[in-house]
Design a protein that fits this description.
The chain is mainly beta and 118 residues long. 13% of the residues lie in helices and 46% in strands. The longest helix is centred in the N-terminal third of the chain and has 11 residues.
Length: 118
């Protein structure tokens, strides 16, 4: 398994999926940007490219990951935390060697990305 999704995150994703059409999957990946060069993409997607995407079910959640992103995402855990200000997903990636102060971007050993100003 490339990534892990906690029970709290799985419940939240399933709740959000109720508002989507049938056949939706959680797409998780990375893109260039943010203070440190890379940022996470987390959203819903209906399209899958068999040549470019890995499709899996993780803790009951249908997940799509761009195959090119797997080395940087390997071992990552997606969690959902609830607090007085609301809630949000948190991502713990053991491959992130630098994270920015705002917590929205990172740098990986294998790929630096395209740093921007926060």
């Amino acid at each position: 398994m490339v990534i892990s999704i906690t029970d709290d995150a799985s419940r939240q994703v399933h709740e959000m999926m109720q508002e989507e059409s049938e056949g939706v999957r959680l797409r998780f990946g990375i893109q260039g940007g943010g203070c440190s060069g890379l940022s996470y993409k987390l959203g819903f997607d209906y399209d899958v490219n068999d040549e470019l995407d890995m499709v899996d079910e993780i803790n009951g959640v249908p997940v799509v990951i761009f195959k090119q992103d797997i080395p940087i995402l390997e071992g990552t855990t997606i969690d959902f935390k609830q607090n007085m200000m609301g809630g949000g997903f948190s991502i713990d990636n053991p491959n992130a060697i630098v994270s920015c102060g705002c917590g929205s971007s990172f740098k990986a050993k294998e790929r630096e990305g395209a740093p921007e100003k926060c």
